[in-house]
Please model this.
Amino acid sequence: MALSDADVQKQIKHMMAFIEQEANEKAEEIDAKAEEEFNIEKGRLVQTQRLKIMEYYEKKEKQIEQQKKIQMSNLMNQARLKVLKARDDMISDMLNEARQRLANIAKDPARYPALLDGLILQGFYQLLEPKVTIRCRKQDVQLVQASIQKNISIYKAAVKNNLEVRIDQDNFLSPDISGGVEIYNGDGKIKVSNTLESRLDLMAQQVKNTHNSHVYICFSPLDFCCSVYCWFL
Model:
């Protein structure tokens, strides 16, 4: 039985509706999948960029921290150099003041003989030789002779050996030095320099080599001279 035109049109409309529905469903499926893939890719890109940004700022933070450390180190070095310079300047000032006061030590008749006794006896102990020669300033000869007589007995009692001492009358120490003596062994090859200047220089070197800054701060020029004098003894 042949279909009427109305039936044919009806079937065609039905088929078209079915095709359109399938097409819409397919389109929706494609859109959903595209949306899902888009969101996944967007998330991946966002995460990648977030990691890059975090890495960038972490790197920047490390650079800033490193720069701060370098700046702090430079500042500390500059401060240390200033402290060292101030310390050296203070030591130089005290040493200059001490050198100016050294001459007054030899002019003190109550203290200089005792100082010479200590310097000469120390020289004997340092050399431990049977024969020694002493050089002194010409004006100190009598004081040195008296000190020798006093110290020989002390030395003999301490080391149980004899000691022969002579004063070099041909080569006196310069009258420009502040005092003290030089003591030589028998052949003159070994010298103990116990002049006031040499002892001050030795102490100055020890003071400069120490790392205790309080040592320098607590000394006034007068205290430093007194410390030098006590150290001689």
